[in-house]
Structures are given as structure tokens and as C-alpha cells.
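Hi R.,

Here's the chain you asked about this morning:
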Amino acid sequence: MKRDKQHLLDDLLNESGSTHLRNSVLSQAHGLLRRKRRRAALTQSLALLAMFGCALVVWRGIWRPSPPAAPGFAPVASAPPSHRLTDQELLNLFPDTPVGLATVDGKQRLIFLNPADEERFITRF
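And here is the predicted structure, written out as C-alpha cells:
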């Protein structure tokens, strides 16, 4: 096989050889080298993109923002944390709704007369 390659190179580099054959072979070799360079550039680009994607996933996992507050549960900015609602203030939070306070087993419970109102106002976790 080495001898055939040597004969081909001798024919290509020989001035007296066919210029059409030489141009054809050189053109094909140029195309092969160009495809090899493009493949290498594409491989490098994909590797860089994969590294960037992994870095982004790691960064999002570490620096994830805190989850937003549940809808309907906005913190009250005007009330200090040590302030407790009085019974009347608690009942005033439910206008036009039949609601009452009862002591059950030593704990005060908010009782709704209509079960639909309880589902509308109370969220169970």
C-alpha cells in the first residue's frame, strides 16, 4: 500500500503528470481537510456549550431565589411581629360572614357557620 501512495504522490508532484488529475486530487484533499477542521471546531463549540450549560445548572441550584409567598398570604408590614390580634380584630377580618370564636379543649377556635366560607378563607397545608 505504501508503494501505491508513493506512486500517486510522485504522479501528483511531477510536472509532466496530468494537471486535471492533480487538481482533482488536491481539491478532494482540500475538502477533506476543511471538513476535518469544521468537525473539530464544532466539537469544541459543543464542548464549550455543554460546560456552560453545566455551570448554569450548578449556579441555578446554588443561587436559587427563595420561593414566592403563597398567594393571599402577604405579610402585614404595619403590624409589629409582637402584636397579637384581639378577638374583635380577628372577627372584623371576615365582614358579612357568620363566624364565631369558641374555646375547644382549652384552645380558641375560629368557627364558620357556612362550610363554604371556611373553604374560601382557610387554607390547610
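One quick note: DSSP finds four helices and two strands in the chain.

Cheers,
M.
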